Amino acid sequence: MVQVSLGCAMQSPWQMVTGGVTAPQGFQASGVAAGMKPSGKPDLALLLAPEQAVCAGSFTTSVVRAACVDLCAERLAASGGKARAVLINSGQANACTGDRGLIDSQRSTQALADRLGLDAEAVLICSTGVIGVPIPMPTLLAGLDPLVERMSPQAGAAAANAILTTDLVDKQVALQADLGGQKVSIGGMAKGSGMIHPDMATMLGFFSCDVAVELSLWKAMVSRAVQRSFNAITVDGDTSTNDTVLAFAAGATLDAAHHLALEQGLTEAMQHLAQAIARDGEGATCLMEVQVVGTRDDQVARQVARTIVGSSLVKTAVHGRDPNWGRIVAAAGRSGVAFDPDAVALWIGPHQLMQFGQPLTFDRDAASAVLRGETVVIRIRLGDGPGQGRAWGCDLSDQYVRINADYTT
Amino acid sequence: MVQVSLGCAMQSPWQMVTGGVTAPQGFQASGVAAGMKPSGKPDLALLLAPEQAVCAGSFTTSVVRAACVDLCAERLAASGGKARAVLINSGQANACTGDRGLIDSQRSTQALADRLGLDAEAVLICSTGVIGVPIPMPTLLAGLDPLVERMSPQAGAAAANAILTTDLVDKQVALQADLGGQKVSIGGMAKGSGMIHPDMATMLGFFSCDVAVELSLWKAMVSRAVQRSFNAITVDGDTSTNDTVLAFAAGATLDAAHHLALEQGLTEAMQHLAQAIARDGEGATCLMEVQVVGTRDDQVARQVARTIVGSSLVKTAVHGRDPNWGRIVAAAGRSGVAFDPDAVALWIGPHQLMQFGQPLTFDRDAASAVLRGETVVIRIRLGDGPGQGRAWGCDLSDQYVRINADYTT
After folding, report:
1. Is A100 in CB contact (< 8 Å) with chain B?
2. ipTM
3. B333 touches chain A (CB under 8 A)
């Protein structure tokens, strides 16, 4: 966990443990190399939730979305969140593939459902890879038997590895807490290096939790946690056709007194993986965290934070270790949120650069040194309101341009 | 003029001429080196309109805006657009300078008004330069006498030169047309290299026209022309604290039958300078024009065009001469505009890359060659609607990152 506090956050009861997405009781996973990736790396994964599981999903807001996204959204809506399993294939995004895309998604889930003894409606699919390229169906179907054979409650890491595309590192998390005497675990895995390659860098996240939660409450928790994590990261502002987060919950009933703590754990797990994605941005040399306080409400604070963390000018200034407060304030000013410019205060790390909307004299070398850290925290106060929010991103390097300019040709 | 047609545009009656902002009859300008720029380059300019002029303004939408922007907006509102002159100082933006900023703006305009025999309320001021730095008032005031002395109907170029900051080239335009036997001229000058340096790259535009137009009509024309030009360019999505466009009209009455042609000329003049700004983006190697057709209306077409032209992934692909249709479609998909993905068609130059939402086989080398041109045209059709719009920007190069990372330190 990156240790950054914002205001007086509640002390967390959650501890990091091992096991990833299979850390919670009753969950199984699997990951194999089916041969869909030219590299021969693992490319097919599975997560299976216990009976009685409920599943909440969050999907790309892009108008152009892959067939698998439509399938997931429709099945979750039709079944009231009664999904049991998700199949993930990496290598081909199955987006912009026309009618064939949906047919392939349906066939894949039907074939896995048959092997698991489930109704096809209870099986979801997520694809990630090159846009415009269909799934090589014979290869995927041939991979299902080994995938199901290797399924185990210890295979979280194998699954996390098989969902990667351009990622430099795998991304797993597992948290555990004692909530009123009940041991509760949350697990997660994600892929994505931050929309750097929208051809290949769908953001996918999968979460598991071993308590029973009523669906509408679980959906609300997942939605808020996604807002505070995956929807608060940006590498270059682009959004993929396949972005999906799926979160399963199944187990013993949790006393309602602990629902807030459960949501806090889910948020921490998602923030951990969201930060890992931002840090994994191509060419990135640091994680940027922007904290905004003093707004009307949290939503607008996040909006300002996202605008600052997504500004090319701020990102290049951070890359150049340049404490350029003018760029930060200019980004806040165009965020669409109203504030009094004469109330603005700004910090880079512990160094205050502005007060009452005007620049202060500050130690430029010390502020520049803060920008050399692995995690750079920029904090801005826009007024006296109760709103606060954070967003994460990475610096913009010339390496980013070289990688992306030379991607296809 | 960049010759790019979109649909069946009206044949233009406007011809390019020389003279810049002083091409229209009755306008005078001036530009001098007052000593506010450390480089010693010209840094103080003036544009004087004839009596009876009306002036329409368009200002930055940023919440953080400089004192001079407030002064311009307030004086134009209070006087009903009866402005006669504008003073432009380059070197210091006079933004984030507190109460002193407004006082300095008022003193500067009062001093110029005294020398021109005008009411201070009829004089406006625009500042551009480093944010947080006030105007060196004794230097500016000492420059006013030489500025007024050199004022002439031939000094458009001198003024255009004195308003520059980080621009690599000056930006002037003058158009002339015979509208029903009446010779009409439109002149303009601008500065800006596209928000690359928000510290130094305010976008300013000044226009002159030698016909009388009723204020409310003139304001509407200017507003629409700004939408189709300066509000349709993006270099990196950042917006300055000082962005301002001022347009003056004064002269003989124009028959209402020619108002549409007048607006067309004003739009062409503004588009010419907007494209010049996009082309002048730091590190840019080409001008990108994105054309969007087939939407519900023009406004949403422009919204999609702006999103595509502003996408870091599209910009780096163009820089790498990579005909990456996936990135273009992904950018359209996240623009906030609804469309049927199965209706999308896409061209790079004359080469069609997509039809009915799916990729076509295309000549990759030929498409890549199109991306080597000085102007790259990307065209996307989203449906059968009547809406169309264009936006302009530039590619994103590793040089951009190096310039911006090393700006202050």
Report:
1. no
2. 0.74
3. yes
